[in-house]
Amino acid sequence: MRLLVTGGAGFIGTNFVRYMLRKYSDYEVVNFDKLTYAGNLENLKDLEGNPRHRFVRGDICDAAVVARLVGEGIDAIVNFAAETHVDRSIEDPIAFVITNVLGTQTLLAAAQKNKIKRYVQVSTDEVYGSLGELDFFRESTPLAPSSPYSASKAAADLLVQAHYFTYKLPVITTRCSNNYGPFQFPEKLLPLLISNAMNNLPLPIYGDGHYIRDWIYVEDHCRAIDLVLHQGKPGQTYNIGGCNERQNLEVARLVLTILHKPESLITFVKDRPGHDRRYAIDASKIQKELGWHPMTSFEEGLQKTIAWYQDNKKWVADIQQGEYRNYYQRMYTHRDETLLKHL
Ligand code: NAD
Ligand code: TYD
């Protein structure tokens, strides 16, 4: 199979490309990525020279390049490419609309023209909005996104569905909960907590810290996408979750315990506007239909992730020298000025 993986130099894409090349010795991957601040060729360094992996730098909104690539005998597309950080989407929504909506449409048009056998849209549970204490996100839960990020992902999901109904394009959508693991950009909660704790810096916790996310180890997500790609039913949506709801404060405490750091590093800062209170996934459909279930416990996944960040200090340090430094200053100045003295 010849796979076009978009966004394969980002966090989940990097893990997915490795997973697929490892698992299928006859698969070829064309890895198409714009290399925004979140894409990193360092992630793919050990794939250099692998004849089954070809990296192409480019933008999923560029119709000519996308058409050319898809026309080169691609069997299936897995679309990870996106602007992904909620806080950045609050600052500057336009980039999210362009890549997440226009980019998805551009890929769908090329998939349709070339009669692609499978198109997998990697979406998020955030399209469902926020939950109260008791409920769970099901595939039938109405879309009610809160942030510009989740609204742009929901718009993309609707375009994907429209291509199934209108053009019979064999699309599948996955909606996964919060991932963590190696290669995650340090703006997201877990790698931020880990790298700050490793450097004895404050751990910024938004609001009261009682916000809940369902954490899944990235390899469990990759395994689910692999299953959906091969065995999922066209036109369907599959929720993917870790069955692992945790409050942010609990996550911070666990990181500190594993790293033997004091709880006094936890610093409450100004909340995110429109902050979704709780995400929780009902993953029974993919469990029943495709036999998937998460295999890595939170404690084990966290240990492995922390070990990866300890072994890859330069990877984080290099990111922190670049655009991320300005972002961190901008983002956390208005949240709590005391955090800045640590930069
Ligand atoms: P990421 O931000 O780490 O990586 C995104 C990648 O997309 C980067 O390599 C970036 O360079 C690339 N990209 C951005 N704009 C592009 C464009 N216009 N053309 C080509 N490439 C472009 O994101 P991630 O966390 O790996 O998420 C991947 C996908 O999974 C996203 O679609 C996201 O919505 C979805 N998702 C993420 C999570 C999570 O917890 N991280 C959970 C559920 C779903
Ligand atoms: P994040 O990793 O940005 O993922 P998402 O908002 O897409 O779920 O944030 C996860 C949770 O952690 C969310 O409730 C916001 C919170 N958070 C903090 O408390 N402090 C931080 O510095 C960040 C980045 C997030």
Would you write up a description of this structure?
The protein has 343 residues and is α/β, with parallel strands linked by helices. It has a domain at 2-180 and 216-240: NAD(P)-binding Rossmann-like Domain (Rossmann fold, 3-Layer(aba) Sandwich). Helices cover 42% and strands 17% of the residues. It contains 12 helices and 12 strands. It has helices at 11-23, 63-70, 86-91, 94-113, 148-167, 189-198, 218-231, 248-258, 284-290, 298-311, 313-321, 323-333, and strands spanning 2-6, 28-33, 53-57, 76-79, 118-124, 171-176, 178-180, 203-206, 212-217, 237-240, 245-247, 266-269. It has a 7-stranded parallel beta sheet with strand order 3-2-1-4-5-6-10, with helices on both faces. A 3-stranded mixed beta sheet has the order 7-9-11. A two-stranded parallel sheet has the order 8-12. α5 (148-167) links the parallel β5 (118-124) and β6 (171-176). The longest helix is centred in the N-terminal third of the chain and has 20 residues, at 94-113. It starts with a strand and ends in a 10-residue tail after the last helix. It binds nicotinamide-adenine-dinucleotide and thymidine-5'-diphosphate. Thymidine-5'-diphosphate is lined by residues 86, 126, 178, 188-189, 192, 204-206, 211, 213, 248, 272.
